[in-house]
């Protein structure tokens, strides 16, 4: 009796501790973005607690995710990458793949801070794929936000607006997942949309979304300071000078709430650029000197390079052209060494404009040519990254099949098994037949895949798929896309399922194995209403293969501006919405629907 009382007492003690840990982690999620220095203190304390007390693997992994994001907010990018790589390895070992997209996003964000786009893009693409597969809207929103910001910075505005619109639409669903991990403030989503519209020179709309960010309930501390900073810049270019001064004053009032020197340095550098544009040259120089001293101390090479460019602009404004040219040449040298071609494009533009004003047209033209070449190199790097990203997606299935295929048997396996000649012969025949069957299945599956799979070049495959969309646009006839997540169906069952689905489709319809777990069906001459009828037929076909879980197929009807990726994104959102409805109304499920 005493033993049972002891066990019961222990359980009653552990349950509040577990609930307390979850509450602490939920509170930390907002604190990480709003007050990173305070959050770091709490994370360190929780790490010590978790080492001395029994804690679930999920709580440990979530604390790692929060720590990774916290390091990013403090400007410790290299440390964040190390934490993210270790966390993803632990997630794989514990078979908690649903947390992997959060670590991939953290790595991508750190690489973007280094302006390493070629590493960041594939990480973001993998994070989005995993977030969709494991239905993690918190990760999906953050990945779309980051990719939207990246596309804004690289002038890929159509893709950026699609990603950010989806992020805004999905944000209300972030708490529908069973396990919380980490999510960005809603204020940052609005601010990203504001920055995009600012980049397209739609200043009134940029102010509208930025004001939405300021009014968000999670706009506090560092989050509010950053948005006020951005708003002051947008209001200035929108000719709202008094409002810009007011916003700048509010942003400065929040500077004491930034706990780390690097946070302060980045803010002072941006405030210096705003002060320069307002003609307050002495204030700009004062702020920039504070920032430069911190950047030097922490060896922030990219920040130093950009601060040198800003200091040169201050010297130009002070009519100290010789000093300004020395600084600009130094900044250009740094950019060339770091291969920051997008920055180089801007640097050469400043030099060209200066020589144009001085009447030195030969030098102005020379730097104009250099600017054009830098722009070409920047675009080339971005295009290379996107092509590699697309090829990686096409080859994902083949790579995973190669990894899962059995290793070849050793030459001495028969001796090791110590079988006699007759059994050895039978064994070899059986292995030959098995190998032939495996080869046949793989070959059959490869032949069945979309005209988007196979051994053709990625550019040719992409052209085949987009040609169907282009024909629909040119012919002005409807086209719909269906998206089905096959992650709950065994891989060996997918080939016969694809055969069965193909029999139920028309000859002009196209079934595409888009990724390892995603099947896309393109329905030319089919409206959204017609697509729903097709879905009803396909659900009855898929349900026996999937078992008791409900089949959810996303639908997207083509619009004139759509691409294959935007159609798939909207179909994915439609699918997530159906998953949410089915979770909220479990009693209304019927396999026949």
From TrEMBL:
It holds the Pfam family GGDEF. The keyword Transmembrane applies. One of its GO terms (molecular function) is diguanylate cyclase activity. Residues 477-591 form the GGDEF domain. Its EC number is 2.7.7.65. InterPro entries: GGDEF_dom (IPR000160), Nucleotide_cyclase (IPR029787), Rev_trsase/Diguanyl_cyclase (IPR043128), TPR-like_helical_dom_sf (IPR011990), TPR_rpt (IPR019734). Keywords: Membrane, Nucleotidyltransferase, Transferase, Transmembrane, Transmembrane helix. The keyword Phosphoprotein does not apply. The chain crosses the membrane at residues 421-442. This is Diguanylate cyclase. It comes from Shewanella vaxholmensis.
